[in-house]
Amino acid sequence: MLMNQLDVFMQKNVLYSRYRKWWVEKAITQHYPAFFDELTGKRVLEIGCGSGCGTAIVKKYFKHVELTATDLDPRLIATARANLNDASITFEVADACRLDCLDDTYDGIFEFGVIHHIADWRACLRELRRVVKPGGRIFFVDSPIESFRTFLGRIVRTYTSHPYDEMFNEQEFVAYLSELGFTTEVHEAYAPILYYFVLVARN
Fold first, then answer.
1. With bands split at pLDDT 50, 70 and 90, how would you rate the model's confidence at 157?
2. Distance CA 43, CA 58 (A)
3. Exposure winner among 42, 85, 110, 161, fewest CB in 10 A?
4. Angle at Cα 74 formed by Cα 21 and Cα 145, nearest 5°?
């Protein structure tokens, strides 16, 4: 699903970018330090990189990784490439449900508030399962449908475009990962403003 004009505007907005960098960095420093050294020298993927906020934070804390950052929207890939200007990062336009890579390609996969934008989120998780190596991890920070039932969430729902009728709840998301064969290593609440969950799943 390509983002609508408001979503793209928000991704490119300086204030929103600062907010996004803040909550991504807070999530990583609070919940992922145990994994910082696990991916040194390894191949990692970020889906839905947007304007590159999460990409920059991954590079900051996960040293010397071979990072590929993808997004479905070419406008945002162009923005991320210009914002970071980092030759060590590969930027690609890609659909997270149909990635153009071989099975078992990546040692780690990151997503920061992306999968709740995808109507067929189960297909996305199956695709991530395909491309992550045995023993590899997927690092999720995402908002379930419960987030959009709060007072603030209902306001956000009014002004943004999401597949609300198909969106996962937290319990079924975790259950489907288990069904795919993942082991949950971290699962914690995270609420910078809206409610998110942080989850690390090992293949």
1. confident
2. 12
3. 85
4. 55
Q: Which DSSP symbol is given to 167?
A: P
CATH topology of domain 40-202: Rossmann fold (3.40.50)
State how far the Cα of 134 lies from the Cα of 136, in Å rounded to an integer. Answer: 5
| Measured CA distances, 80 to 51, 91, 144, 166, 193 (Å) | 4, 8, 26, 28, 24
Q: Cα(first)–Cα(last) distance of the chain, in Å? A: 26
Enumerate residues 6+ apart whose C-beta is below 8 A from 19. none
106-112/196-202 β-pairing? unpaired
Q: Which tens digits make up the pLDDT trace of 76-109?
A: 999 999 999 999 999 999 999 999 999 999 999 9
pTM: 0.92
Q: What's the helix, strand, coil split of the chain in %, to 5?
A: 45, 25, 35
CB count, 10 Å around CB of 176?
Answer: 15
Residue 128 has pLDDT above 90, yes or no: yes
Residue with tokens 């990151």: 110
- Write out the two tokens for 68: 């590929």
Give whole-number Cα distances, 90 to 10, 87, 148, in Å: 23, 7, 33
Is residue 7 within 8 Å of 164, Cβ to Cβ?
Answer: no
Reading the block at residue 85, the tokens are: 């200007």
